[in-house]
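Example record

One chain of 269 residues, shown exactly as stored in the release files.
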Amino acid sequence: MNLANAPLVDSHFHIYERSMPLTATAWHEPKEDASIERCLKTLDEHGVSFGVISAASLYGTYNDYVRRALRAHKRLRGTAMVDLNWDLDQLERLRDDGFVGIRLLWRPLDQTPDLDDEAYRRLLRRCADLGWHIHLTDRAERIERTITKIEAAGAAVVIDHLGLIDTAQGVNDPGFQAILRAIDRGRTWVKLSAGFRFKTPGLADLCARALVSAGGWERLVWASDWPFAGFEDKVTYADTIDALFRWVPDPAMRFCITARTPMRLYFFS
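Predicted structure tokens for this chain:
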């Protein structure tokens, strides 16, 4: 790939070291470090100038390693996993260090917390006041309600991995259609990323095509999902850029998705 055509911003990747404390419910145990040094080397090798570190659910609210990376490298932003009991001062310190949102990784959960609960209503309002987004993953049958609750609180929504609505109905699933409607309302963005996580053959490409049609100029960002947890030996960084070029063949739209939109969303908001 010509580095002159490289994405400017990678909007979702992880960093961690194996010595960090895994949660009791961690779904994966990494076999090697994904250190900040290794991460930045990978970005540089592929011509990517800026990046957004996604909170790794494996480590829960242990945001310390990401926080140190954000302090040291102003080319980076991050999302955090937070505790409902953290007060505004704690959240403001995270913001000042380069965090731009919180992650609700709810897709693995059979039962999700109640966003009408006082503690969640307070957290969502604080996110809105801080200018943060809610970095969301949820199941098809719940995602519409979750999005609308977050919107009602005044916060923006950024949805992972093409929505990851990997069902028999595919792009016709009510959950995926709800994502398209949320894009139209103007407070939801979606990441073109991690097509390799779909189990249904060809569905990731169909979802990407529908998303590009709905929000390609203003409401999509691109991401690698490096270091591809659970797929470390099956996916390369170059593969994820190839997927981007397949999904977004138009150079002008690709510039919006990989540069203009993520810079506004994560760095200049």
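Notes: The chain has a mean pLDDT of 95.
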